[in-house]
Amino acid sequence: MSIIQELLISNAAYAASFDRSQLASPPAKRLAVVACMDARVTVEEILGLRTGDAHIIRNAGGVVTDDVIRSLIISYKLLGTREFLIINHTNCGMATFTDEELQQRMAKEHGVDASQIHFHAFGDLRENVEAQVQKIRQSPFIPQAIPVHGLIFRVEDGRLEHVVSA
Amino acid sequence: MSIIQELLISNAAYAASFDRSQLASPPAKRLAVVACMDARVTVEEILGLRTGDAHIIRNAGGVVTDDVIRSLIISYKLLGTREFLIINHTNCGMATFTDEELQQRMAKEHGVDASQIHFHAFGDLRENVEAQVQKIRQSPFIPQAIPVHGLIFRVEDGRLEHVVSA
Fold this sequence. Notes:
homodimer, alpha/beta, Beta-carbonic Anhydrase, Chain A, 5-stranded mixed beta sheet, 5 helices
């Protein structure tokens, strides 16, 4: 069976017991989470969030890019969130390469010029979390009244470390 | 209790029964999903995915921005994914405003110039899904050999509609 067939069968089972049709669009906990796309970081489970509780924004690294700022503006301005979390994690793929290396691989193996892409690879995990919180704090588009927390998820034991308090 | 305290208590319970320390970084199903940040779209549950199965990329709208292309490059090039899904959903907040309206609100209510921000508000849902698939298909950075599917999640009944086949 193809992956898409398998997923659609799983979805039919999900829909058969679906009981969330009355949920409103604004997140119940007025929370937005920015996290890494990593397959091991199941954000809702890690935080005990239920469907409907929070906006979940994810990308490679859990990095505060312009696109994340765009999403956060829509989140607080149109859908009423009032608190933000940034989650990075141990053993992240983003710490295994440099932007220059990946740019060179793209040129060599695919013949495309990726030299303008900032991949946001990083070295020190804790510093990276702190830098992402700072990017939100320094954005003119995000009110200072919104608390921003920085956390590290440990893929080794499932624990969250609260490294930047709002 | 504050939200962050509540989430950290939930995480302690998650960690106490944590059994996923042996998962590898590359997604088991070699799949990457791009979906909306909406609180009602719990991607893993909707698709029957388990922790470790897939990269999950989410932003406002489930829009293929430059940041999503960045994440997808890292996903297939460094972590071996071989199939992509785009998921938009009914009753999306992105269909309730225009970019110009939000730019004007940001200027009026926060005194900031957001006129350079492309918020990616949209009108027709199905057309938006098709446009996101096309953006991936036309990117020089994503190989044509990677199948890209477009789906609509119906928040009314939990069903996925497969609107663009790879």
